[in-house]
Design a protein that fits this description.
Arc Repressor Mutant, subunit A; 8 strands
């Protein structure tokens, strides 16, 4: 009985730490309660506390320093030179009217997409649920992009389906009142598969721009991973270069 109880308790300690990080109670670089304090708080052994903190550290959210304690360590994004904006903002500032059609929506497990490695990109577990939706984006009534989006349920629990026919960022900021932070993108030129080519009304021999993008909340937690396939003649990237001294 004692072993089962302790096994359950270490999970409770993990949840306590992760919930504290999510809520901002334990902000980035802050020192977590000591092992002794957690032992007293949950009435468990130091071995149980140690196991819980090691598990959180393996997920990348805590750094344990011998003699100093455990510190909150949020995922770092590489330095970016492109202004963070939504798909709609990027095109409409060029005078292109953007509209959206939702093609598919479901809630699935992260492990259902092993080729994307969502666990590493979004800092979630294989069994964690994600909102998965596919949208066709139009520019001045012409199809210009297909987007495949993955949003962890433990970051955004409920999504109004009707919002997916508009700007998703607009919904998050204006309706859910979330503070969006930085993002990280990777661009490449690829050939579309048959599904993407049909949606964009192009041949499979016509290259498209693939943008792989991770978006974070203001607290540093990634809340979205998106693969966007855009027609190359409509795609434009504006960025700023800065020389550090």
């Amino acid at each position: 009985m004692e072993k089962k109880f302790e096994k359950y308790q270490y999970k409770k300690i993990e949840e306590y730490v992760m919930n504290g990080i999510y809520s901002g109670e334990f902000p980035a670089n802050s020192l977590l309660p000591t092992e002794k304090e957690l032992c007293a708080m949950f009435n468990v052994s130091r071995m149980t506390v140690n196991k819980a903190l090691n598990n959180v550290a393996k997920k990348g959210f805590v750094e344990r320093i011998r003699g100093s304690g455990s510190f909150v360590k949020l995922p770092d994004l590489e330095k970016q030179s492109v202004i963070m904006s939504s798909f709609t903002e990027q095109y409409e500032e060029r005078g292109i009217h953007v509209s959206t059609k939702l093609l598919f929506y479901s809630v699935v497990k992260a492990r259902d997409f092993p080729q994307l490695n969502l666990m590493k990109k979004l800092y979630i577990n294989p069994l964690d649920m994600v909102h998965y939706f596919v949208r066709l984006r139009y520019g001045n009534h012409k199809p210009i992009a297909v987007q495949y989006t993955y949003v962890p349920v433990n970051r955004i629990s409920v999504i109004d389906i009707t919002s997916l026919n508009k700007s998703f960022y607009g919904y998050l900021e204006n309706k859910l009142k979330l503070s969006l932070g930085n993002g990280k993108s990777n661009l490449s030129i690829v050939l579309p598969n048959e599904e993407i080519a049909n949606h964009l009304h192009i041949s499979k021999d016509t290259p498209v721009v693939l943008t792989r993008h991770v978006s974070c909340l203001r607290n540093g937690f990634p809340f979205e991973y998106v693969d966007t396939y855009s027609t190359w003649e409509d795609y434009q990237l504006n960025f700023f270069n800065k020389r550090d001294y």
